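Listing S7. Sequence submitted for prediction.
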Amino acid sequence: MTTIALSRSRYISLILILGTLTALGPFSIDMYLPGFPAIAKDLGVDQARVALSLSSFFVGISAGQLLYGPLLDRFGRKIPLYIGLVLYIVASAGCMYATTLNSLIILRFVQAIGSCAAAVASVAMVRDLFPVKDNAKVFALLMLVVGTSPMIAPTVGSYVTSVFSWHTVFLILGVMGILILLATILWLPESYHPDTTMSLKPRPIITNFLSVVSEPQFYTYAFAGAISFSGLFAYVSGSPQIFMDVYKLSDTTYGWIFAFLSIGLIGSSQVNSWLLKHFTSQQIVPIAMAGQVIVCLILIVGAWNNWLSLAGIITLLFAFLCCLGCINPNTSALSLAPFTKNAGSASALMGAIQMGLGALASAVVSLFDTHSAMPLAVTMFGSSLLALLVLLMGRKQIKTAITTPDKASAVIVH
């Protein structure tokens, strides 16, 4: 691990590069959402089935992260990252020419396998390059970069789909992959020396993952954070049908609403950075999770009684994302804080848990075609309540003094 002193310009450039790596997956999700109706029409399927290509992407990210974790620890961060980005670029080209839903589902799975290298490497490099006490702040800054995805991607995707076609969306994603690969090669430092003692045989890898997941601080915050975060995947998967089918909005209008809602996630993540000056991550997380449960309870009651106007559901989803913005940076930092040598494996396992549960939540919403917000409301409420229960029970198992990014401070600059 190479924690280094950084100049202010170098600090900003690292945040931008790591942020674009982290944002590659979300961009791959958000940009093609407005194209669901066009994809369904071209491939001769209903819109709900198109969401299966989103679920396969989540499954690919979940499975792929378990693959890349040991590779990042064994060969350093950059070589596996290069391989993943090249795979992503090739799969994006394949998605452009998909002629059946099944082929799109498979290619999206492969595309996800490539993009998750960027996700795992960026998280591990935060742990490598920055002091533990600053990790929550850095994750919040990364979320600021990642937050441009739901603001820009659906809007761009809607216009691209309207003017050109949904195929062009994947051309743009492929070009993005090429640019990110070049930035990684030219400006991103290698932050971890290859560990030649790290075995890539199945038994040692499994043993290593078990040692990570047996750490009480890891399993408490990784699982609680991932379950909470799965509500976001349910929202992403269910929102096209709700806004464009139930509320009869155009794909362009949906893109703008999606962009507006993302402000809640971005803004609250930056408020979280301010809160960390006055409170610890351990104090912030349970309060934010409790707020999330309350918001989802109101959502499910409103959906059950058909009380939700368009403005009402937008308001509740905005509040849900605000809570999530105060949860995710803290649970991520707390999950990784105990690890140094196997931070890559810990990052991969955390991401796999998050994406696996996200894929499950996405699939649950996709299975129902009720022309209402109820499937989304039930899924989000269930995930929020379960996350809070896991947090409260898991914290009782943390016997030793907790390793924490307590009251984040700035990285030293010269």
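Caption to Listing S7: primary sequence and predicted structure tokens for the chain studied. Residues 405-414 have pLDDT under 50 and may be disordered. The chain has one domain: 11-187+207-397.
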